[in-house]
Amino acid sequence: MAPLCIAGSGETVVRNGPAWYSLHRWVEGQQVSIGGRDALIRARPHLVRELAVMIATLHMVGSQDLDEGGEGDPDRLLRVPRANVRRIHGSRRRLVSRWQVLRLKPRKSDFDRWALRVLPEVAARAETLAKNSIAHRVPRSETGLIHNDVNWENLILDEGFHVRALLDFDNVVRAPWALEVGAGAVVLVGADPHTVDQFVSGYEATTGAAFDRDLVRLGMELKCVRSIITSVLAYLDGGTDTRLLAPWCHHLHESLQLVQQE
């Protein structure tokens, strides 16, 4: 962890609206986009295990009893994508839903056409996920705090492409670790079964855990579905550059198709 800094008020934790933040020293390094992921992994295969160890370490720290209000709801994250689909299709407080605005848009971009084609399929997966329950399959010992937004934009690498820092803990929740292992795998190393197995094995070797691989696969699917829907929702609300958004969504959709083929 980067060393803590002290604000002018003498505090190491500051408040911004309803949120609290700790202040840390600036971390020097470099970032890689998801478009450069596969080439980087091929050139530096050590990253597969290193990224798994990063998530494992995070979970071991989060395994301590932090009095976060009990065990939480293991199925909560599975319902999030469906809720966002309803926001896209809903017209509450709007004359026309976001979806109808997109359908009626006279000059559609390539991303508009992609979203219109793909979102119904992804929304159907969101509905299936929401009806699923894993509560009976996840022991309390395999549930704890998760980062909940692991992706390349939140990673800082050093000059040798080793992990230096993980950023952005705004979305931390208590949830089954297997879901984040799956989410981390599909975003950080892709959906190739052999590479995913290396990633999961690296996590298990670090923590001593042995996950149900079906739950890991569910986490991969959940990440793809959730992030596609969240990205499209952000786009429909305006202010999102499709030059960055489109490659991200395309990678997620390709990975989702690969996961579903297994």
TrEMBL record:
Alphabetized InterPro entries for the sequence: Aminoglycoside_PTrfase, Kinase-like_dom_sf
Keyword Transferase in record: yes
SUPFAM superfamilies membership: Protein kinase-like (PK-like)
Classification lineage: Bacteria, Bacillati, Actinomycetota, Actinomycetes, Micrococcales
Name the record gives this protein: Ser/Thr protein kinase RdoA (MazF antagonist)
The UniProt record lists the keyword Lyase: no
Entry superkingdom: Bacteria
Any one GO molecular-function label of the UniProt entry: kinase activity
Pfam families: APH
Domain (Aminoglycoside phosphotransferase): residue spans on this chain: 21-207
Keywords, comma-separated and alphabetical: Kinase, Transferase
Signal sequence segment: none
